[in-house]
Every structure is written in C-alpha cells, then in structure tokens.
Amino acid sequence: MMTEMIFGSLTSDRLTMTAWGGFCVLSCLLFVYRGNWVKAVVPVIAVTIVTGLSCMIMLLLHMKYTPLSVTLGSLTIGIGIDFSILHMERYYEEKARGLPPARAMEVATARVGNAIFASASTVIAGFGALAMSSFPILSNFGVVTIIDFLLALMSAFVIMPPLLVALDTWQSGRKAKSEVSA
C-alpha cells in the first residue's frame, strides 16, 4: 500500500514537478544573467521541447511511468540546460570576438560540439548497460535515460542554435534602434 501511495504520488505530480523545475531554472538563469531574458529563456525553451518530446516518445512506445522514470524529468532539465548553456556561452564568446551571429554559432558548434557529444555518449553507453537489465523498472529507466540524452543532444544542436541566433539578432537589433533614438 505504501509503495502504491508513493508511486501514485510521483506519477500524478510529475508534470507539476517538471514545471517547478523549469521555473526554478528560469529564475536562476534570470538572476545569473542579470535579467537578460534571451540568455535565460532560450535554454529553458529548448529543454521544455525536449521534455515534451520525451513524454510523447514514452507514449508512442507504450512505456509506463515508474518512480525512476518520473524523476527523469528533472534529469532531463538538468542535462538539457547544461548542454544548452555550454553551447550558448561558446556562441557569445565567438560573437564577442566580432563574428556575426550565424558564423559565431557555426564556430561555437564546431568547438564545443565534440565535448558535449562525448559527454552524452558516455552517459548513453552507461545507461545502455542498465537498459539490458532483466529487472523491468531498471531496464525502463535505462531506455528512458537514453532517449532523454539523445533528445538533449538534439536540443543542443538542432533546436537551441537557430532559436538563440534568431532571438539574439532580434534583441541586438532592438538595442541598436533604442541607442540610435536615444
């Protein structure tokens, strides 16, 4: 009965826990980036998309939520944010060197991409071993972790770059216009 109560509580509150996690990360990023909403929002948007895709994939694969897989919402947020911030910070370093936004993103991806990919690959391989477990809850956890890390990689290299370049270019254009009018 206790197990059922804990399991029911975890699975029914998973969306609330994930939303609170995203809100806390957004709040921290707004503080760290001193109110620069583009730097704070872009990683959160990318991770929100990944979290939603993870849920859809689990539905399509008819995977059930377990106490372990429910906690992956937080793990997905943490890892996805980490990958996105590393990539984003490298973009701003390249842009500070005078590169235009699109070129800065190309260089940033070339320079940080291997490190992010290697990090994710080792985790995917490690959890791949867990996915081979004969214990269904552990196997499910391994599979969901692999899916989430693949989605986090996709987010860092497919979703976040064009979103960041577009919003950063828009924000820079607005700043330039307001400086000209001042």
> Mean pLDDT, as a whole number?
85
The computed structural class is mainly alpha
- Total number of strands: 0
Strand content: under 5%
CA-to-CA gap between the ends? 67 Å
Helix content: over 70%
Radius of gyration: 19 Å
The poorly predicted ranges are none
How many helices does DSSP assign?
7
Secondary-structure element series: HHHHHHH
Largest sheet, strands/sense/barrel: none
How would you describe the overall organization of this protein?
With 182 residues, the protein is mainly α. Helix 2 runs parallel beside helix 5, helix 3 packs antiparallel against helix 7 and helix 5 runs parallel beside helix 7. The model has no long low-confidence stretch (mean pLDDT 85).
Quick structural summary:
This protein is an all-alpha fold and 182 residues long. It is 88% helix and 0% strand.
Question: Can you give keywords for this protein?
Answer:
mainly alpha, elongated
Q: What's the topology here?
A:
Layout: H1 2-12, H2 14-32, H3 37-60, H4 67-70, H5 72-96, H6 101-131, H7 136-181
Helix pairs in contact: 2-3, 2-5, 3-5, 3-7, 5-6, 5-7, 6-7
